[in-house]
Design a protein that fits this description.
The structure holds 2 protein chains of 2 kinds. Chain A is an alpha+beta fold. Chain A folds into 2 domains: 79 residues, ACT domain (Alpha-Beta Plaits, 2-Layer Sandwich); 79 residues, 2-Layer Sandwich (Alpha-Beta Plaits), CATH 3.30.70.260. Chain A has 4 helices and 9 strands; from the N terminus they run E-H-E-E-H-E-E-E-H-E-E-H-E. A 5-stranded antiparallel β-sheet of chain A has the order 2-3-1-4-5, with helices on one face. A 4-stranded antiparallel β-sheet of chain A has the order 7-8-6-9, with helices on one face. In chain A, a hairpin with a 7-residue loop joins strand 7 and strand 8. In chain A, helix 1 packs antiparallel against helix 2. The relative contact order of chain A is 0.17. Chain B has 2 domains: 172 residues, Rossmann fold, CATH 3.40.50; 153 residues, Dihydrodipicolinate Reductase, domain 2, CATH 3.30.360.10. The termini of chain B are close together. Chain B is of the alpha/beta class. Chain B has a 7-stranded mixed β-sheet, sandwiched between helices. The chains are: A alpha+beta, B alpha/beta.
Chain lengths: 162, 337
């Protein structure tokens, strides 16, 4: 089968070679590579599109090996690799306009609110909400900070992951 | 080695107790003969240059609540500083008065005075360390004395000396930990029983796990002091208590704990020490992670460059447990003589 990958490379010599190495070593075939050094992501990294061919197990091993070398995999077959971030907010969730909170989170670049769970309490100001967010690879720290800011602005206690 | 215990509450008494319990072993293993020549509390002092009878001292304290009632050698109204001003010959000060995070006194004065007099210092007192770490460390260097404070963070859980001595080859980039036993106990109980914060706190107070005024523990102040100490001592940062962002557990509800559990998370009060962030706050930790410890245990993960992540777990509180760390520091000091 074929797999289209988009890898994230640092703009330093040898990166492309490091990325291609695992592919060759495990016996997968390279069908196409699109590498434009002038096209950069906001992080200053270079996206490289590589289409590889092999059997399912080999391709899985290739993905694992590439990740082990520390190279970020941004897309696999057109689907963005996501990081799941869970946070809990305590406070008067409903009163503070839940819809607005979700919108503000969605507005963060590369972030999507995937799941929302609410537990009301006898005292409305002690309600709790669990929000699960999907964010692009490598943006966890940045997103956690933004979540905290949004929550604090609304007077919520924000409980983030460690 | 003649020692002087300033502060004779649960930790001070614990130190005296372990000194007595380990007398023979210390002599046999290290050739160390620890003599308690003075003990001070709010009532005054008991001073005997030949060494106090520890059993007698502990009984006196238990019966009367005052060391000044110690037969023959008790003195009323002797303040810490007076004793330290040459009333008795001693080699090492053990400073274990209650933590004061406003100004670190009277411990700060005790420690600086002892150092100026050329005495080594062992302490569990977080106050002076969280406010004036740099000055105290400098005073120790200037006066050529030993300054040890393992007991100030994590009780019996090794961390300070552990980082300095056993991880000396690695650069410690950050530390994450559960550094307060009282709050960990409360959160664990709330998770297990679904009880409210207030009810669980009351039970903890009844069991002696939380103080009558639990503020230092539940508002994260105790953990924040420890964050400062770790930042200064292990990460070589120059920070004080005001540099820490502190949020306690008083707002945590059983509903939020239940919500977290649905996604496989626990809520713990975590201290974060890194060059970018000094924080004590309730955080989500994955069930099954090293931070999923229950009860009054403390845990700390040190992230290093060479050794990757190293985690320590241990009893963070308790008079004997804390005293064990103080005794270890005394043995370390003895080994350098």
């Amino acid at each position: 089968m074929r797999l289209k990958l988009v890898l994230e490379l640092l703009d330093v010599p040898g990166q492309l070679l490091d990325a291609l190495n695992p592919i060759g070593r495990l016996g997968a075939n390279i069908v196409a590579i699109i590498h434009q050094r002038d096209v950069k992501t906001e992080r200053g990294t270079i996206p490289v599109q590589i289409t590889i061919e092999g059997d399912k197990d080999t391709l899985n091993e290739v993905l694992n090996l590439i990740e082990e070398t520390g190279i970020g995999i941004m897309e696999v077959d057109g689907i963005l690799r996501k990081e799941k971030i869970t946070t809990i907010m305590l406070g008067n969730i409903i009163d503070q306009d839940l819809k607005d909170t979700v919108n503000q989170l969605n507005k963060i670049d590369g972030v999507m609110v995937a799941d929302l769970d609410l537990k009301m309490s006898d005292h409305p100001e002690k309600s709790a909400s669990r929000i699960v967010i999907e964010a692009e690879q490598g943006r966890k720290k940045e997103v956690l900070t933004k979540i905290k800011d949004i929550g604090n602005l609304k007077g919520f206690l924000v409980i983030n992951e460690v | 080695m003649k020692v002087c215990i300033v502060g004779f509450g649960s930790v001070g008494q614990g130190v005296a107790r372990v000194m007595e319990m380990k007398k023979d072993e210390l002599q046999k293993e290290y050739g160390l003969d620890l003599e308690l020549v003075a003990a001070l509390d709010r009532s005054g002092a008991a001073i005997n240059p030949e060494g106090l009878d520890i059993k007698q001292l502990l009984v006196t304290k238990k019966l009367t609540g005052k060391v000044s009632e110690y037969p023959e050698y008790g003195e009323e109204g002797v303040s810490g500083l007076e004793v330290l001003m040459d009333k008795v010959e001693y080699h090492c000060l053990i400073e274990v008065t209650p933590t004061n995070i406003e100004d670190g006194e009277p411990a700060l004065s005790h420690i600086l005075k002892a150092m100026k007099d050329g005495k080594d210092v062992v302490t569990s007192n977080k106050g002076p360390l969280a406010l004036k770490f740099k000055e105290i460390a400098q005073a120790a260097r200037d006066n050529g004395v030993q300054f040890k404070y393992e007991a100030s963070v994590g009780g019996a859980m090794p961390i300070i000396n552990f980082a300095h001595e056993n991880l000396s080859a690695s650069k410690i980039e950050s530390i994450y930990g559960i550094l307060n036993g009282t709050t960990n106990y409360i959160l664990s109980r709330m998770a297990k029983e679904g009880s409210s914060y207030e009810q669980t706190l009351n039970e903890a107070q009844a069991m002696g796990i939380a103080e009558t005024d639990p503020t230092q523990d539940v508002e994260g102040e105790d953990a924040a002091c420890k964050v400062v100490i770790l930042a200064n001592s292990i990460l070589k940062m120059d920070v004080t208590y005001d540099d820490v962002e502190v949020t306690g557990i008083s707002q945590i509800t059983p509903e939020s704990i239940a919500l977290a559990k649905k996604e496989g998370y626990l809520i713990k009060l975590i201290g974060e020490v890194s060059p970018e962030s000094l924080e004590v706050s309730p955080r989500l930790v994955k069930e099954g992670s090293p931070f999923a410890v229950e009860g009054t245990l403390n845990v700390a993960t040190l992230k290093t460059d060479l050794a990757d992540d190293v985690t320590v777990v241990g009893k963070g509180a308790g008079s004997i447990e804390t005293a064990s760390a103080i005794l270890s520091d005394l043995i370390s000091i003895w080994k350098t003589k």
